[in-house]
Every structure is written in structure tokens, then in C-alpha cells.
Amino acid sequence: MRILLISANTEPFPDAVFPLGAVLVGNALRTAGAEVRILDMRRHSPLSLRNELAAFSPERIGISLRNADNAAYPATRSYLSAYTALVRSLREFTGAPVILGGPAFSLFPEEMLHRLGADSGVRGEGECALSAFLGPSRERIVTGGFPDIDDIAFPPGIDTMFPGFRAYRTIGIQTARGCPNRCIYCTYPVLEGRKRRHRRPEAVAAEIDLLYRRFGIRDFFIVDSLFNADEEHMIAVAERIASLDIRIRFSCYLKPRVSDPSIFRLLKRSGCAAVDFGTDSGSPALLASLGKPFSRDDILRASRACTEAGIDFCHSLLFGGPGETPETISETAELMDEAGPKAVIAMTGVRIYPGTEIARIAADEGIVAEGDSLLAPRFYFPPMGPYSLLRYVHERAQGRRNWFFPGKRDWGSAIGFKVLRFLYRKGPLWRILRR
Ligand code: B12
Q1: Ligand 1 in contact with 344 (CB < 6 A)?
Q2: Which residue's alpha carbon is at the smallest distance from atom 90 of ligand 1?
């Protein structure tokens, strides 16, 4: 069977993201015997899409929907109209069934299916719902589940499946799925389950080795929601990568809590060049209210260890959780001064997703009503409201030149941003900004 997988994501900010989800699903389908092509909407217009469809004549089409929106306030962007237009074009050019998947679909399955007018969709992990493509499944929404992930793999023949893959200088690598934490706003347990599932460290290292030797790829992003959710696993992976006879660089998300600061030296040795800490706040009250599993001391200790190991790091902050006040904002700003990150990435307002604790709190507080759609982005703000929150946060950021606000404007269309990305295509944007 010929299957075309389309990566619908065209967002350039903070970086064009390698469509790893589509690639892993593509590999599972290929292993099951299908002929698979991946098409990237960053490189296609409706006309070239039509030509591709005519040349490949797929029997099934899967669309990978990564982002529903940019989750940023006030410069919020939704991608739904572009996705709807894509499905409409497909309907014009082919009769092949259209199957949706990806995190944006999994968070809003019924609404997405209805809005986009597709035939069916997979909620969750695509590798374990191949019947949606290959089988007789008549279900409109197939649920992927959270299986063991020993079998998931990057396709060794990525160049034949996805000829445009070299356009991405940073390739995503996944070492584990599942997040046991209970941060009140977070979708990761909804998307990946709470149980941590690991790939074998040798398999991860072999994948990196292969990408380096066969295709010359040197830059990677470990896409695990938290690479150190299970420290032992992270250490095993880092040791394996360090033992390879190659020089690569990677970035990753970490929680700012380590049992032993020397872990950062190992990370550095294995090629870790940049760490994004999912810190959210520096106020003990807010850390508790957001459900974060670490303290101010942990944040400082992890920052210090990172500095000593010579790894660039940023702290990602989330202002506006339950209980945020001008005082807690100041506490966070002061802690950031002490921690000394290369950059602070600050979001204001908490995006409310279905199935999260913040959705329940927002309903209790009358911020959203029962049955309200959350697909068009909705945000939680504390009683001070969005305008005061933005004012206080921006006031605190004044003079702190390493602070950056993704929600402040539409960065993706800003000329300065495009020039910067043209000049420095590799690595996280915040690292480039600090050059
Ligand atoms: C790593 C990551 C990043 C990194 C990516 C680095 C890199 N080079 O890859 C960075 C920091 C750059 C980033 C940025 C952003 N991110 Co981000 N990111 C993630 C994260 C943690 C993992 C994504 C990933 O690669 N997963 C691994 C792959 C294998 O999984 P997957 O894509 O889900 O694919 C599986 C299934 O979905 C399914 N599937 C996928 N496609 C298809 C297709 C079909 C047909 C089928 C059947 C199944 C299927 O099967 C796959 C394999 O099991 C997710 C959260 C999460 N845990 O999913 C957020 C997430 C995707 N990001 C999100 C957002 C909002 C953003 C930003 C917009 C934030 C911002 N304002 O800057 C930007 C957008 C960047 C861009 N250009 O698109 C949101 C999207 C939700 C939403 N609101 O729409 C998520 C879900 C987090 C959240 N808030 O809930 N992100």
C-alpha cells in the first residue's frame, strides 16, 4: 500500500522543527510493508502538492498535526485554518482517505476531525495504531495507547522516505516517553501517559551514530519531554553517546533537579551543548501551586552545576498560574538573577488544555464554562488579569537583557528573526540571541 504522510507544520519559530512523529510512524508503516513518502508543507505549495499526489498516487494520506496553536499570549496564532485548507486541497486532488494524527490532534480529537473534515484519526502514538492505515478499521478515532517502545526506530533509509530531511540541520531523537510529574497545566501525561517507557540506550546511540556516519548529521535535539525524568536512564544514554567515536552536539529539556552535579560533566562529554530547564517559577508558592517537583534550591544547584560544566542553559518560565502576584513575579526575577542563565524564556498566561488540572481549576473559577471549546486558545490568568500580569512581568524584565517573550509579538514573521535564522541555522534560538 502507498501511504503519503504530510507534515503540516510550517511554524518557523523558534526553529523549524524536524517532523519526528511522522518519521517514526512512517518507519513503522514501512516495516509493516507499506511504501511510505513524507511530504513537508514547509516546502510545498498547493500546486506542488498536486504534482506530488499525481506522481505518487497514495492510497492513504496521513496528516501529522503537531501544533494547534503557538500557546503564546498575547500574540496567539492558531494554525487551524491552514490545516483545514490543506484537507480541502487534498479532497480536490485525490479520493484517498485522510487520517489525522499528532499531538494537536490527540489533544482535540473530535473537534479536529470535525473542523478539518478528515475521514479518521489516531489519538496517541501512531506506531501502535497501524490498523488506521492498513486494516479494516472503521472507527473514526483509533486510540494508540502507551505500549513499550523498544521497537520504535528512526528509519535507516530516511533519505528515500523523506528526501527533504536534509533541510533540517537539527534532528529530533527520542529516548523515552511518558511523564510521571503532575504539573497542573501540562499535556505530557495526556499525550504520553504517566508511566515512563524507555528505549534501550544502545539503540539510541546506534541511531545517532548512523545519522552521523551516513548523513553527516551533527546536531540533535533530544525531544523527551524531560530527559532527566528518570536520571538513571539519562545517564545510561549519555554514557553510550559519550563512548561513540564521534563529535555531535545536542540540546534537551531538563527539570532543574539533579541528584549529583557531576551528571552535567557527563552530559557535556556526551555532546550536550544547551539545556532548557522547565523551571516555570522561582517563587516557592507558585512552584507548589503549579505542582513542580523541585525547589528554589534545586534550581540554583542545577544552574550552578550547568555553569561549572560549561553547558549553556536557559530557564523557561510560566507567569500567571494560580496565586501569581506582583511579589511572586519579583521573587522569580530575583532567582533568575542568581541562577545566571544565558536566557530566560517567559510565557505569560497558562494555556488551558483538556484533561489537565488547570482546566478543572479554570472551570471551578468560572474562567471557562462547562462544554467550552479549548481548541481556540484559552488562557488562565490570576485575578490581577492579563493586562496587569503583562505589565508587572514586563516591568520586572526591564534591564534584564537576557529575558525573551515568545508571546510578545509574531516573531515568526519578523524580518530580524528571519535574518538571524538565515545566518545561524543551528541550535536553539535563545543561544543565538545571546551571541
Ligand atoms: C520537543 C518539543 C519542542 C522542541 C522541538 C525541538 C526539535 N528540534 O524537535 C521545541 C523547544 C523547539 C518546541 C517548540 C515549540 N513547541 Co513544542 N514540544 C516538544 C515536545 C516536548 C515533544 C515533541 C516531539 O518531538 N515528540 C516526539 C514525537 C515522536 O512525538 P509526536 O510528534 O507526538 O508523534 C507521535 C504521535 O503524535 C503520533 N503521530 C504524529 N504524527 C502523526 C501522523 C499520523 C497520520 C498519525 C496517525 C499519528 C501521528 O505518532 C507519533 C509517534 O508515536 C511536545 C510535547 C509532547 N510530549 O509531545 C511539545 C509540543 C508539541 N510543543 C508545543 C508547542 C505549542 C510548541 C511551540 C509553539 C511553543 C512556542 N510558542 O514557541 C513551538 C513550536 C515550534 C515549531 N516550529 O513547531 C505543544 C503543541 C500543542 C499546541 N498548543 O498546539 C506541545 C504538545 C507541548 C504542549 N504545550 O502541550 N517544542
Answers
A1: no
A2: 187
